[in-house]
Specification:
The protein has about 300 residues and is α/β, with parallel strands linked by helices. Helices cover about 40% and strands about 20% of the residues. Strands 3-2-1-4-5-6-12-9 form an 8-stranded mixed β-sheet, sandwiched between helices. The chain binds beta-D-ribofuranose and calcium ion.
């Protein structure tokens, strides 16, 4: 048996998802056994096509499974204004030769959780619709997952899509609640950790000049997002999914984490999709999340750079 850690990624590519996926493909300690695809940053048709294209560019043969085309209950707005209408910067790339598998993403999550029972690392980089559906189909799913890492939430209420909520949770709060209530332990990399781990546009642009197909492709698909970001957020860029993936692949790089109970708010004019952390542990709920507070910045940047072949 191969002793690499089997890694299943649920994702909605998306520019920052793409960087995270390149990091995962590049890691010698992990074997990416599948990509299950969510709708989120843009519609499912695009997120599936983007996942297939990225695999082709990276030269990896990883099965891609299409999942749910919409949130569990309520329609939500995508993030095309950040990632481009097609989620990959509208560069008009040629479609990948390969197609998605016939199996639904939620069923693939369950099947792979049996195949790699007790060893599977599941990393969720998008809205949690597929994972929630898998959990509803089989509530014993968490017992077969070695570790679940989620990019989502804003742990002190500094959201990015509303004042209180982060995009992945806000897109499908019902799904997020199902997952946070169904898994006894989650490693959470939230938006506020993302903001604390920015990296300079200039340095990143230098990496993107590398003579590698991955760097060239990433330079093209991320251009609009980087421009949008530098207009809005200044000289540092942020990649939420890349930070979550660094935490997933290399948890030893975490400089500070805090275990706390985290719940998802579904209601409220201002608070739908907020992640409410019981910082003082007053409610008596069990700690269900290990929240990433600080990560070794040099280690994070070295991993992104290597993933681009720079
Ligand atoms: C998250 O939302 C998406 O737009 C990104 O891909 C990331 O997963 C950040 O809030
Ligand atoms: Ca994402």
């Amino acid at each position: 048996m191969n002793d690499r850690i089997p890694l299943l990624i649920d994702t909605d590519p998306g520019v920052d998802d793409a960087l995270a996926l390149l990091m995962a493909f590049d890691d010698p300690r992990h074997d990416v056994v599948g990509l299950t695809i969510a709708a989120g940053n843009v519609g499912l048709e695009h997120t599936v096509a983007n996942a297939l294209k990225l695999c082709e560019v990276a030269g990896v043969d990883v099965p891609v499974f299409a999942g749910c085309a919409s949130p569990l209950l309520h329609p939500a707005r995508d993030a095309a204004y950040v990632h481009g209408r097609d989620g990959f910067g509208d560069i008009g790339y040629a479609k990948a030769a390969k197609q998605a598998e016939a199996e639904h993403a939620a069923l693939a999550i369950l099947r792979l959780s049996h195949e790699y029972a007790g060893r599977l690392l599941l990393v969720a980089l998008g809205p949690l619709t597929n994972v929630a559906l898998a959990l509803k189909l089989d509530p014993a799913l968490p017992s077969r997952i070695a570790r679940l890492v989620v990019m989502g939430g804003a742990v002190t209420g500094h959201g990015n899509i509303t004042p209180a909520a982060e995009f992945n949770v806000y897109f499908d709060p019902e799904a997020a609640r199902i997952v946070l209530e169904g898994f006894p332990h989650i490693d959470l990399a939230d938006w506020e950790a993302t903001m604390a781990h920015g990296f300079s546009h200039d340095g990143f642009e230098r990496w993107l000049q590398a003579d590698s197909p991955k760097a060239r492709f990433y330079e093209a698909i991320s251009k609009k997002t980087r421009e949008w970001s530098s207009d809005r957020r200044g000289d540092h860029w942020h990649s939420a999914d890349a930070l979550a993936m660094a935490f997933a692949l290399d948890p030893e790089g975490a400089a500070e984490t805090l275990e706390r109970p985290v719940a998802v708010e579904l209601d409220g004019r201002h608070s739908r999709g907020a992640t409410v952390v019981d910082w003082r542990r007053e409610g008596g709920a069990a700690d269900n999340c290990r929240i990433l507070m600080r990560y070794d910045q040099a280690r994070f940047e070295a991993r992104m750079r290597a993933a681009l072949g720079a």
